[in-house]
Amino acid sequence: MVKAVVLGAAGGIGQPLALLLKANPLVTELGLYDIVNTPGVAADLSHISTPAKVEGFLPPDDGLKKTLTGADIVVIPAGVPRKPGMTRDDLFKINAGIVKDLATGIAKTAPKAFVLVISNPVNSTVPIVAEVFKKHGVYDPKRIFGVTTLDVVRSSTFVAEILGNFSLSKEIVVPVVGGHSGVTIVPLLSQSSHPLPAGITTPDYEALVKRIQFGGDEVVKAKDGAGSATLSMAYAGAEFAAKILRALKGEKGIVAPSFVSLQADPSGAAALTKELGKELEFFSSNIEFGAEGIVKINPLGTLTDAEKALVKAAIPELATNIQTGINYVAEAY
Ligand code: NAD
Ligand code: LMR
């Protein structure tokens, strides 16, 4: 029996993500929470002929607590999205408070659940969840994940496009490390399961890196004020959640990038820190999952000079974003 919960389940990401989780046969119970519309979303999904029993709750009558009771995995896409001209950091003011309150609810009701954070800015909201859990004495760094899968999904798609073979998209795996915003998004294209064309020019390589780093902006611009990526994010979130669910069920050797606390695996963290040349509390690298959460944080491995430069460029912004999240919780208590 596995209970999955979506917090922010009535939103642009929340609804399709809830649909994809309802379609996952490993989920037997699906709890949906939002400040609006969850009873309707739950009623709608509950007619789908898959195993999960669906319930939707709103804030009154302890709705958050009811949603979270018995949760094994909690996905958080609650919060405001960007509009053109905004950075993800511009969302911090509103989303920090939303994530802090939801993390408090999880810490109180489902402290052992795996927490998957989608709400932006991920580089700061993941540290917020970690700090809230510390304040409640329930922190387990092995169970908190920043969802960076959309960057991986975009990389697969854009590399397939360059290779001129869209049918390869699903097979192409590119590790994307660092964090989830602009220059903190570092695609390790030299480690792509399907190499780039041997003759790719430097400008074409740089344009590809830029497109992966700023893919979110492409969608924000196209939506023209109506929000940011929702459908591709729901797909990516469901892919990541599916991996966690398989690990929960005991499958071994599942690996994917995620933005996590380096405390989750001190020996892996030591090797990674040596590669980075700087101590960071959180970083996205390839992570191996198990039934208890993070089993191993993998090192970056061999990088090209261009990739080393990208990692170096990511570090200052990442360090600032992480500290912003930590300071927010310190000031709130
Ligand atoms: P949206 O506005 O469509 O949906 C957000 C939902 O959150 C709404 O239904 C809203 O009612 C709900 N909500 C607000 N406050 C809440 C609270 N206190 N408790 C529960 N629910 C609450 O936005 P969206 O497009 O779904 O995006 C959600 C977030 O995901 C944004 O912060 C966005 O930047 C982020 N995002 C992250 C990634 C990523 O790769 N990690 C990708 C896309 C979007
Ligand atoms: C994305 O990468 O699409 C998301 O982080 C949403 C955004 O604000 O770009």
TrEMBL record:
Active site: H180
Residues engaged in binding NAD(+): G8, A9, A10, G11, G12, I13, G14, D34, N95, I118, S119, N120, M233
Reactions it catalyzes: (S)-malate + NAD(+) = oxaloacetate + NADH + H(+)
Annotated EC: 1.1.1.37
Pfam family, one: Ldh_1_C
Lactate/malate dehydrogenase N-terminal domain boundaries: 3-146
Domain Lactate/malate dehydrogenase C-terminal, first and last residues per copy: 148-327
PANTHER family: MALATE AND LACTATE DEHYDROGENASE, MALATE DEHYDROGENASE, MITOCHONDRIAL
Family: Belongs to the LDH/MDH superfamily. MDH type 1 family.
Record's subunit section: Homodimer.
Protein known as: Malate dehydrogenase
Organismal lineage: Eukaryota, Fungi, Dikarya, Basidiomycota, Agaricomycotina
